[in-house]
Amino acid sequence: MTMQRRFLIVSFALVAFGAAASVSAADLAAGKAKATEVCAACHGVDGNSATADFPRLGGQYADYLAKALRDYKSGQRKNPIMAGFAQALSKQDVENLAAYYAAQPATVAAKH
Amino acid sequence: MTKTLLFAAAVAATLGSPWAAAQGAPAGDAAKGRQKTQMCTGCHGIEGWRTAFPEVYHVPRIGGQHEAYLVKALQEYKSGERSHPSMRAIAASLSEQDMADLAAYYAQGGVKTASK
After folding, report:
1. Shortest CB distance from B82 goes to which of A51, A52, A77?
2. Do the chains contact at A110 and B110, CB–CB below 8 Å?
3. Which of A34, A65, A81, B73 has the largest CB neighbor count within 10 A?
4. Is the pLDDT reported for residue A49 higher than 50?
5. For domain A26-102, is the CATH number 1.10.760.10?
6. Does any CB of chain A come closer than 8 Å to the CB of residue B46?
7. Which residues make Cβ contacts (< 8 Å) with residue A7, sequence separation at least 6?
């Protein structure tokens, strides 16, 4: 391996690490605490909502859940109930909640 | 008292019909829904599939989702209340019956995968 190539690989690794580090890792315990406090009444603590009006979240993709919360917060997705809750969430709350519900037993799955 | 009851009945009858119409969503037929999934499976049928536009994220898993929520999502895409471009275009082509059928089909549950 040439010196140049080694330098390139190390550079890429550093850039990749930097990008990953700029988004704080999701905290599942904090996600659960917030979920219990804010979301559980409708969506359930494990995301398996018992009421048809409220979607099941357990096992949903974290990035989709986070996008939904961001869209509710920005008003791009309109729902009078979710708008209020999403407004109160920080960026870190959103990441924590999304990761927490994604990690719960699957209630939804891909389907042909 | 009788008058009150009569009045209440009259109000109920007057309000009843439009309310019933609003509530009268067609019942979904899962078997028919299965025939209508051509536009869905390319994204929702593939585990791990991601959107490409306007933002990259996983296409949500919808197998096993609540039927009523799925109908509502499709209606909101059709009306423009929800904004994903592909979903708006697809939902625009669906009738109320199509939405009910698709929701009934998808609510039945998804494929089990190795990861989940």
Report:
1. A77
2. yes
3. A65
4. yes
5. yes
6. yes
7. none
